[in-house]
Design goal:
The chain has 409 residues and is of the alpha+beta class. It has 15 helices and 16 strands. The radius of gyration is 28 Å and the shape is elongated. The structure holds histidyl-adenosine monophosphate.
């Protein structure tokens, strides 16, 4: 868990503002859900047998004896919110986005934190592959707007309740005796969550699954049609993508489309954003039978990429008021108040300090202009100003202050 400070915070704000603006034009509206939910929601939603639920949740008992968990992701929470607030009664598809911290007790490493932020989107009410394409396209526009057009979109289909059991059986059949040679995690997955063996990164497991059957070859007609149409739509939207037959995702709720956006510049934790379709989750959580699609962007990873491309921003005050004496303090505070209300970043010097020390402070803050106000200036009805960048100086009547400095240039 870590602190986010300036100047990095400016990149975070840029990412959040870009998302809010762009996602709104696709009809997504913001929701804010609690960071803690009943443990059962995640166990049911993400799935017993997943690494997240089995090993990574921050779970505790509250004073009322309830089992509570800090959300490890946003989808289950938004689904709970959707059901509880009967959002399915809104015109379909209902589209929501959220920004906030998530918590997973994972092994920390570069790009992987125990508290991390996601910007996520969830769209409910359409089973059409057009929704998948529209939402993936929105993510691509988002990345383009941030100047990250080169990232790879990987897609796969992991089938549905009708065809996945057949595929799972084929995979288990393929592994046969080799099961005993899998890593301890995959041994466990073999009985509880065999698909996850496909994206294990342990070299021994990668070697053992060479030549394993592919999910796409076991899809039912409906899932195959969905996947083919999605690919055609992505092509028609000029979205470059690759099919990754081994991508299965670490959460159990997905049906059909699964996708990830990866970067070659991030090392092992290379997924910048990921998501997919989850047509059964709303019903499984006690809501109506509503299909859905969504994704989440990892803030730490996207800001890490942007730090490499964007110049660091160091905002500075527009004005520094150097005040000399008690009278100047009253006038200075009044002036600063007006400038700040007009949106100009204004700092005030310590009226009891020397002009020299106030100028030094203005310099350290990299203020654009220093305005000097002392008893002499008050008596003459004029202030003096200095532009720090080039040392140019002048004087002007107090009445000209708003027109000179009152609005952004
Ligand atoms: P996820 O793949 O678990 O999916 O996470 C989405 C993104 O969050 C990842 O691609 C990564 O960028 C970031 N992320 C995940 N774990 C960490 C971590 N420990 N440290 C830093 N960043 C991390 C989900 O969470 C799904 N809820 C996405 C979704 C929304 N599917 C449908 N709708």
């Amino acid at each position: 868990m870590r602190d986010v400070l300036p100047p990095d915070i400016y990149i975070w704000q840029k990412v959040e503002n870009t998302a809010a603006e762009l996602f709104s034009s696709y009809g997504f509206r913001e929701v804010r859900t609690p960071i803690a939910e009943s443990t059962g929601l995640f166990a049911r939603g993400i799935g017993e047998g997943t690494d997240i639920v089995d090993k990574e949740m921050y779970t505790f008992e509250d004073k009322g004896g309830r089992s509570i968990t800090l959300r490890p992701e946003g989808t289950a929470s938004v689904v709970r919110c959707y059901i509880e607030n009967q959002l399915h009664t809104l015109p379909s598809p209902q589209k929501f986005y959220y920004i906030g911290p998530m918590f997973r007790y994972e092994r920390p490493q570069s790009g992987r934190f125990r508290q991390f932020y996601q910007i996520g989107v969830e769209a409910f009410g359409s089973a059409s592959p057009a929704l998948d394409a529209e939402v993936i396209s929105m993510l691509r526009h988002f990345l383009q707007r941030l100047g990250l057009p080169e990232l790879t979109v990987q897609v796969n289909s992991i089938g549905c309740a009708a065809c996945r059991p057949g595929y799972t059986e084929a995979l288990i059949g393929f592994l046969g005796d080799r099961q005993a040679e899998l890593c301890p995690d995959c041994q466990r997955r073999h009985s509880r969550n065999p698909l996850r063996i496909l994206d294990c990164k342990v070299p021994r497991c990668i070697a053992l699954r060479q030549g394993a059957p592919r999910v796409v070859d076991h899809l039912c007609a409906d899932c195959r049609g969905h996947f083919e149409t999605l690919q055609q739509l992505l092509s028609s939207l000029a979205i470059p993508f690759v099919i990754n037959h081994e991508m299965v995702r670490g959460l159990d709720y997905y049906t059909r489309t699964a996708f990830e956006v990866t970067s070659g510049d991030l090392g092992a934790q290379n997924a910048v954003a990921a998501g997919g379709r989850y047509d059964r989750l709303v019903k499984e959580c006690g809501g109506p039978d509503v299909p859905a699609f969504g994704f989440a962007i990892g803030m730490e990873r996207i800001t890490e990429l942007l730090k490499k491309t964007l110049p660091a921003v160091h905002p500075a005050p527009a004005l520094f008021l150097a005040l000399l004496g008690e009278g100047a303090l009253y006038e200075g505070l009044r002036i600063a108040d007006g400038l700040r209300a007009a949106g100009r970043w204004t700092e005030i010097g310590d009226h009891a300090s020397s002009l020299k020390s106030q100028m030094r402070k203005a310099d350290r803050l990299a203020a654009e202009y220093v305005v000097i106000i002392g008893d002499d200036e008050l008596a003459a009805g004029e202030f003096r100003w200095r532009k720090l960048a080039d040392g140019s100086e002048g004087a002007a009547p107090f009445s000209a202050l708003p027109s000179l400095f009152g609005s952004s240039p």
